[in-house]
Structure formats: structure tokens, C-alpha cells
Amino acid sequence: MLTIKSIPAFNDNYIWLIHNSTEACAVVDPGDAAPVLSYIEEHGLTLEAILLTHHHNDHTGGVAALHRAFPQVKIVGPKNDAIANLTHSMSEGDQLSLFDVTFSVLDLPGHTNGHIGFFGDNKLFCGDVLFSAGCGRIFEGTTEQMFDSVNKISALPDSTEIYCAHEYTASNIVFALAAEPDNRQLQLYRDEVQQLRSQQKSTIPTSLLREKSVNPFLRTTEPTIIQSVSNRTKDNSPIEIFAALRQWKNDF
Q1: Is the N end or the C end of the chain the one with fewer CB atoms within 10 Å?
Q2: In this structure, are strands 123-127 and 130-131 parallel, antiparallel, or unpaired?
Q3: What pLDDT, in 10s, does the model give residues 161-199?
Q4: Does a cis peptide bond (omega within 30 degrees of 0) precede residue 223?
Q5: Cα separation of 59 and 127, whole Å?
């Protein structure tokens, strides 16, 4: 069984540190090396691998310094995103063995063209694709790609733990409630999140089961969601409902 530690960075990023019972560890999306190096030194760990979901600097900015500190580190990232100095370039169908756990690589384009995720041990590291109660912005890809990526995540087991890269939950819930104000599960989640954040506690990981009950981007076939965007699209197909929600969120 793997242990996951969140290392906060910048205003709202999470760098995920993965380790088991040994002194080896891996990190996911280290935008800043300093807090990673501090944690590793404090706990007597050795960095074995760096996993990158996409090329944005708040996810990759610490790689060079970590590589200098641990020259033998494996640097694993997307084959179709422009990231220099990868030791292992991966895309869907590839697998990564990490501390006796096999992670499958998923292509999750939309936020960037080559965005990937890592799924193993019932955990998904999905970068900026799916957030709790929300989804990522579409910068390089298309709406169709992001829709497909979110649906690919939705097809994983409901028990999947979702490790996204930002603490956006509270603000996402504000939008989700605008889209679905009478969703009782969402109202209860708002109260839970408010309590966690008032204590400066993380809301991540979330579970896929929970997201299916509160995340509007996973609820595009729900009549309440369709009704909420009825003034934004006359096409009730899931992709058009998703597109209307994403544009609404952009403007929210």
C-alpha cells in the first residue's frame, strides 16, 4: 500500500509525494523544488522518480533543481507535451512500476494537448483535468477532448481516489451550486469543505463516487444540469451541455 503526502506550493498547488515502507519516494508535478527538498530531508527520503502530468511551469518548475539534487532520478512525463529532459516519455497504454505498484498511463488531453494521468493502487493523479466539483480550463485542446478525458476518468471504479493538483474546491462549489442549487449532496459537501478550509485542511483527495454526485461536469445527463444551461444551448447532447457549462464557468 502506498502512502500519499500533499506538499503545498504557491497559492493553491499540491505536489503529491508517494512512498511506501522504504526510504524511496516519488513526487507528482513538482512546480517548486524547495518544499519537496525540505520534506525529503526532514524525513530521510531518497527521490526515485518524478511524475509529470503536463508541461505548465507550476507543475514542472522544480524539476531541474530536484534532478541536480538526485541525479539518478527518473523523470516520467507525457510523450505529446513539450517537456525537456524526460527519461521516460509515456502515453496511453504505457505502464509505470513504482514501489511494486503498476500505474497505467491515461491520455487526458484538453487542458494541454499531451496531458496524461497516472492510475494505480486505486489512485488517479490527474493534474489539471478533473478537480473536486469542477474541471480544468481548456487551453490547448478542444472541448471534445476535455469532455472525453473527463468521461474516461468517470469510467474508472467509483472508489478511485482523485488526486488533482490544485485546491480549487471551495470556489468550484460556488459555481456548482449556481448550476444545481437544489443538489442536497452538494449542499452538504459545501458545508464540509467550508469547515475543512476554515481549519486550513485539504479537501483533496476526493473520490470519484463523490464527484459523480456533486461535480456538474460529470452530471451532464442530469435534468437539473440540462435545465440550468437551457438558455445557453438548445442541444441537450452531453457534449453540448458540457461545453455550455465550461463556457459558463469561464465567465463566472
Answers
A1: N
A2: unpaired
A3: 999 999 999 999 999 999 999 999 999 999 999 999 999
A4: no
A5: 8
pLDDT tens per residue across span 15-74? 999 998 889 999 999 999 999 999 999 999 999 999 999 999 999 999 999 999 999 999
Q: What are phi and psi of 66, to 5 degrees?
A: -65, -35
* Lookup: cell for 112: 494541454
Q: Do 69 and 84 contact (CB within 8 A), yes or no? A: no
Q: Which helix (H) or strand (E) holds 102?
A: strand 101-107
Residue 56: what residue type?
H
pLDDT above 90 for 82: no
Task: Give the CA distances from residue 127 to residues 28, 44, 73, 121, in Å, rounded to whole numbers and listed in that order.
Answer: 9, 27, 20, 17
Cell of 252: 463566472
pLDDT, one tens digit per residue, over 86-132 is: 999 999 999 999 999 999 999 999 999 999 999 999 999 999 999 99
Nearest by Cα to 206 from 106, 123, 146, 128: 123
H-assigned helices in the chain: 33-43, 57-60, 63-69, 143-154, 169-179, 184-198, 208-214, 223-228, 238-251
Query: Could you tell me the pTM of the whole model?
Result: 0.97
Q: Which three cell numbers stand for residue 175?
A: 459555481
C-alpha grid cell, residue 77? 512525463
